[in-house]
Design brief:
Elements lengths: L5 E3 L6 E3 L1 E4 L12 H14 L3 E3 L8 H10 L8 E6 L1 E5 L16 E5 L3 H15 L4 E7 L3 H4 L3 H21 L3 E8 L2 H10 L4 E5 L13 H8 L2 E5 L6 H4 L6 E2 L2 E2 L2 H16 L4 H10 L4 E6 L4 H12 L4 H9 L13
Helix pairs in contact: 1-2, 1-11, 2-3, 3-5, 10-11
Length: about 350
């Protein structure tokens, strides 16, 4: 498999490269980038053959959008697919904190969740200004889930369905955007969103991996039936499938528990018998499902960006997949890469 391999989303006709560029790190996620560093990272991704680029207003209070837009502004817009997200409106505030969670040294803005029709329109206009563009290829409704909103999630998810999504439909009709969908980290809510709306592409983070394959039950069959594409984020489950079961390994943004570490060790042991990195198997497994149009991965530096491409293009013997199935470490109905 090659980074530059492509799949076409049936509903929108958009062509996605196998690896996508995840823009969270250049929003100063867990570390501070210079503008020049960010430019170099995006240029490196382009040189690797990546043509799908994803960002969001929530990635560093618009910093990721600003940097990605400037890094791509001299590229041929017809050669790339660009996605961002709605659900947050950024308001200037000079004394706003310079950090927001794991985002550091960010612009003096306050991000407020807003899934209203008007809020979506404001968010898209703001994103256009930051990214120096008059249209997007994909817009996702971002984080209208329990992980983000807790007990308020049902009300906000409903608002996303009845208010935010019609706004995106209007923008699609006006050809401001070609494809619309949801960016959610929970499989059941993604199923409900797809059943309730006319989506084209959705972004699912961390739910289809070597450690989690629940989407095979209902979500992916629905996507296949309706021609909905899935962009996968979190193919390493936020760390453990990249690092292996080391001390302090992360799983779904928290410390991995003993059960996860034990299963990761089983996966790693099989990979080591075939002299293949666990991370290579993780990213190739995630992309192998037909509904997955791209595996979108961020990188903290150029070395990691290089490594991501090397892992995706590594040779994985068919016997390794057979061994994983025989050990019941991946489901028998999970598609595997074809050599």
């Amino acid at each position: 498999m090659l980074v530059s391999d492509t799949k076409v989303n049936a509903r929108s006709g958009l062509t996605f490269t196998a690896l996508g560029y995840g823009g969270a790190p250049i929003g100063n996620y867990n570390g501070v980038f210079s503008d020049a560093d960010a430019q170099d990272m995006v240029s490196q991704a382009w040189d690797q053959g990546i043509r799908y680029f994803d960002t969001a207003p929530g990635y560093g209070n618009g910093l990721s959008e600003h940097r990605l837009g400037h890094a791509l502004r001299r590229r041929d817009r017809k050669e790339l697919v660009l996605s961002t997200k709605v659900g947050r409106v950024l308001t200037p505030m000079l004394d706003a904190p310079s950090t927001n969670g794991q985002y550091l040294d960010i612009p003096p803005l306050v991000a407020g969740y807003d899934y209203s029709y008007d809020g979506v329109m404001r968010a898209v206009e703001q994103s256009m200004q930051r990214m120096l563009t008059d249209h997007f290829d994909v817009l996702f409704i971002h984080d209208c889930d329990r992980y983000t909103h807790g007990s308020a999630a049902p009300e906000l998810f409903h608002q996303a369905i009845v208010s935010a999504f019609p706004a995106l439909e209007s923008l699609r009709e006006q050809q401001v955007v070609k494809a619309i969908g949801f960016g959610i980290n929970e499989t059941d809510l993604m199923i409900e969103a797809i059943k309730s709306t006319d989506v084209d592409v959705c972004l699912l983070a961390g739910r289809y991996t070597l450690l989690e394959q629940e989407p095979l039950d209902e979500l992916f069959p629905i996507c296949e039936q309706q021609g909905v594409g899935i962009v996968l984020g979190g193919v390493y489950n936020s760390g453990v499938l990249a690092t292996g079961p080391i001390s302090g390994a992360r799983f779904n943004y928290a410390a991995a528990d003993a059960n996860i570490l034990a299963r990761a060790k089983q996966l790693q042991d099989v990979c080591r018998r075939h002299d293949v990195p666990l991370a290579a198997v993780a990213v190739q497994f995630a992309y192998a499902h037909p509904v997955v149009v791209s595996a979108c991965i961020g990188a903290r530096d150029e070395k990691q960006q290089t490594r991501n491409a090397e892992l995706f293009e590594s040779s994985v013997p068919g016997e390794l997949w057979d061994d994983l199935r025989a050990a019941d470490l991946i489901r028998s109905d999970a598609p595997i890469p074809q050599s």
